[in-house]
Write a structure and sequence with these properties.
The complex is a heterodimer of chains A (114) and B (109).
Chain A: E1 3-7, E2 10-13, E3 19-26, E4 32-38, E5 44-52, E6 55-58, E7 64-70, E8 73-78, E9 87-94, E10 104-105, E11 109-113
Parallel strand pairs in A: 2-11
Antiparallel strand pairs in A: 1-3, 3-8, 4-5, 4-9, 5-6, 7-8, 9-10, 9-11
Chain B: E1 3-5, E2 9-13, E3 18-25, E4 29-37, E5 44-49, E6 53-57, E7 60-65, E8 70-75, E9 84-92, E10 98-99, E11 103-108
The chains are: A mainly beta (114), B mainly beta (109).
Chain lengths: 114, 109
Amino acid sequence: SQTIHQWPATLVQPVGSPLSLECTVEGTSNPNLYWYRQAAGRGLQLLFYSVGIGQISSEVPQNLSASRPQDRQFILSSKKLLLSDSGFYLCAWSDRGRSTGELFFGEGSRLTVL
Amino acid sequence: GQSLEQPSEVTAVEGAIVQINCTYQTSGFYGLSWYQQHDGGAPTFLSYNALDGLEETGRFSSFLSRSDSYGYLLLQELQMKDSASYFCAVAQAGTALIFGKGTTLSVSS
């Protein structure tokens, strides 16, 4: 069966510090990968999605970046965090061969920037 | 661009039926998905409609009208555990799922 792991689960970072969130998927090949962010009590904002190694589409210009160094690994980074970067970050995957509108989410990383 | 509209809050009692509506504006529309998210947790997939009509999965049903750019999630025989946020999301050409802002459902006894 397929699983998705995301870490760290919780982190508190000072403004201006770097960020690295990692996500890996097991049990599937060639998945589509996604990063979403959810502000407190709000909807999910699409940040990045990837259809293959090294292929990243950015939906919202900001101080975040994403990389996909391996087929089942997706990394979200920032060189200098802003207060507005606080939120719940969710990694997700979908089966590239199926158009069912179904995403499988990781458990999320809750980031607080102080 | 794209936009989705759904009510921010809905309240109901156990055993009741509730309908959460979603209207959308988008180009290259493929289908409409619904997700459930409990407080502090990750969203989980409920249903996907690519064609017009009603899809039933247990106590939950989802409906789509492509001509009206409208869909709804119907929850029957409500239980306390159904208290959660519900999101509609559009699947469209050239990008990933775009989510609405969510509807908070509160079920009381």
